[in-house]
Amino acid sequence: MENNNEELEELTVTMTLEDGTCLECDVIAKFPVEDKDYIALLPQTPVAGYSEDEVFLYRLTELDGDNIELTPIDDDDEYEAAADAFDELLDEAEFNELES
Asked: What rounded mean pLDDT belongs to the chain?
């Protein structure tokens, strides 16, 4: 799965937090790391305890066309690998912007 910014520009995901609150998030990126897919989400409204521009990373499983499953990344090494891959995507996007 490749990150395609044009395709993701208007995608949103509605998440239900542990306290039952629904949270709308913009999809920032979908990307693979080894044999797993991940998604980076940016909440549309502030979330208590998090900075305003903090991105949430989840393991992504596409169940069918419109349904996905988001799994929290509990393993520190797995989270680090996903965060590093996301940082590389950001660096690449910034580099591409500078070249245009």
From this structure: 85
